[in-house]
Amino acid sequence: MGRPKNGKNREWSKEAKYKFVAMVLSGEKSTREIGMEFNISQSMVSKWVRQYNEGGMKALENKRKPGNPLMKYSKR
């Protein structure tokens, strides 16, 4: 699968992640079913469930990605 060429990685909000986690924890759907329905890898959903179990809603927040903030000003 993978992302399309020159495509961006999708970023899920913590509310959307929680919706998927709640489905798994309630037994409504499996990680595989969620993955197939919403086009998310099964391992990603499993990771969110694990993070939620270890740290609650706070653990589902998106982390800032490191990088050079001045790179957008450079000319190639």
Which features characterize this protein?
elongated; 3 helices; mainly alpha; 46% helix; 76 residues
Write structural notes for this entry.
- The chain has 76 residues and is mostly helical.
- Helices cover 46% and strands 0% of the residues.
- The protein has 3 helices and no strands.
- The longest helix is centred in the middle third of the chain and has 14 residues, at 42-55.
- It is elongated, with a radius of gyration of 15 Å.
- The two termini are 30 Å apart.
Estimated structural class: mainly alpha
Number of helices: 3
Nearest-integer average pLDDT: 83
Unreliable residue stretches: none
Order of helices and strands: HHH
Helix content: 40-55%
- How large a portion of the residues is in β-strands, by DSSP E? under 5%
Q: How widely separated are the two ends?
A: 30 Å
Q: How many E-type strands?
A: 0
How would you sum up this structure in a few lines?
This protein is mostly helical and 76 residues long.
Task: List the topology elements.
Elements: H1 14-26, H2 31-38, H3 42-55
Helix pairs in contact: 1-3, 2-3
